Amino acid sequence: MSAHCDHHAPQTEKIVNLSRYRQILWIALVVNFVMFLVEIGAGVQAGSLSLLADAVDFAGDALNYAVSLAVLASALAWRARAAVFKAATMIGFGLYVLGSTVWSVWNGELPQAVTMGAVALLALAANVAVAWMLYAFREGDANMRSVWLCSRNDAIGNVAVLLAALGVFGTGSAWPDLVVASLMATLALHGGWTVLRQARNEIDNNAAEGDRHGHVH
């Protein structure tokens, strides 16, 4: 949804878009929760940190979609506050994966490359489908932008896990898995910071607008 359309679309079209966005969020929530269950089991079985990191990411995204649904019809200030919360979860995920990667350098095991690759392909298909449905809403407010960034980052992360599986298979080493996990963490930190900055700007602008209205009255 572009800014141009948002300013000039009839009210009925905005309602239709909001209804469509809500339906997509429900689909995304279910897909992410199911993939969390699949990847957490596969990650433990395969001994893959990148799969476990992706599973935690799916769980975080499911929570994010639930928060987005809860505040979808709320005022911009509340949607921005929800985006701050979601940005914090993205940053927390990144820090968790970085810490786990450091720990695994000395205590990790060789992952099962075939399981990693198969699950990564399944996760990629799920995330591409969700990202495609959310593409039209990528230029919305901080809350909508955070949802789009999560799905986009997940698809990129799935490709990285797939490459890690090929690396583990080709080298017989766990290092490709650890490197990809670190990259996924960095991506989450960058995305979280981007959403946090936009959300803070929206909160500040909303507060300034409220002050101006208060002075007028």
Automatic annotation (TrEMBL):
Location in the cell: Membrane
SUPFAM superfamilies hit by this protein: Cation efflux protein transmembrane domain-like (SSF161111)
Membrane-protein topology: Multi-pass membrane protein
Domain of life assignment: Bacteria
Membrane spanning residue stretches: 24-42, 62-80, 87-106, 112-135, 155-172
Keyword hit for Transmembrane helix: yes
Pfam families: Cation_efflux (PF01545)
InterPro entries linked to this entry: Cation_efflux_TM, Cation_efflux_TMD_sf, CDF/SLC30A
Record bears the keyword Ribosomal protein: no
Main localization category: membrane
Keywords, ordered alphabetically: Ion transport, Membrane, Transmembrane, Transmembrane helix, Transport, Zinc, Zinc transport
Residue intervals of the Cation efflux protein transmembrane domain: 25-200
PANTHER family documented for this protein: CATION EFFLUX PROTEIN/ ZINC TRANSPORTER (PTHR11562), RE54080P-RELATED (PTHR11562:SF17)
Protein known as: Cation transporter
Species of provenance: Hydrogenophaga atypica
